[in-house]
Amino acid sequence: MASPTDIQCIGDTVAIRWDDESEDYFPMDRLRALSPSAEQQGEKDLLGKVHGGTDRTEYPGVQVTGWNPVGGYAVQFHFSDGHNTGIYSFGYLKEIAKAQS
């Protein structure tokens, strides 16, 4: 799996350069909407029923204000609406990028 070598905010977009020399671009509001956090997606119980989460799919104007690496496998983005609990694995970011194209 590719790992980021550089992450930059360019306007309303997060640009990620990967160690395989590919680059992906993510609209910030879309990253927020696709947060893999329990707050956004909910949590499944043992029977697979989802508890919590939100139906909200748009976050106009929300910006990425920072990020932290998580181990050698993910990035935690910080958003201008205070959300910062989503852990975006590198694989998940690649899935998002593929779905955008």
Please describe the topology of this protein.
Layout: E1 4-10, E2 13-18, E3 23-27, H1 28-33, H2 38-41, E4 43-44, E5 50-51, E6 64-70, E7 74-79, E8 87-89, H3 90-100
Antiparallel strand pairs: 1-2, 2-3, 4-5, 6-7, 7-8
Molecular structure report:
It is a single chain. Helix content is about 20%, strand content about 40%. It has helices at about 30-35, 40, 90-100, and strands at about 5-10, 15-20, 25, 45, 50, 65-70, 75-80, 85-90. The strands form three sheets. The chain has a three-stranded antiparallel β-sheet. A three-stranded antiparallel β-sheet has the order 6-7-8. A two-stranded antiparallel ribbon has the order 4-5. The longest helix is centred in the last third of the chain and has 11 residues, at about 90-100. The protein starts with a strand and ends with a helix.
Oligomeric assembly: single chain
- Stretches where pLDDT falls below 50 for ≥5 residues? none
- The string of secondary-structure elements, in order, is EEEHHEEEEEH
Give the total of beta strands.
8
Instruction: Calculate the terminal CA-CA distance, rounded to whole Å.
Output: 19 Å
Rg, Å, rounded? 14 Å
Concise account of the structure shown:
The chain is α+β, with helices and mostly antiparallel strands. It has helices spanning 28-33, 38-41, 90-100; strands spanning 4-10, 13-18, 23-27, 43-44, 50-51, 64-70, 74-79, 87-89.
Keywords:
101 residues; alpha+beta; three-stranded antiparallel beta sheet; 38% strand
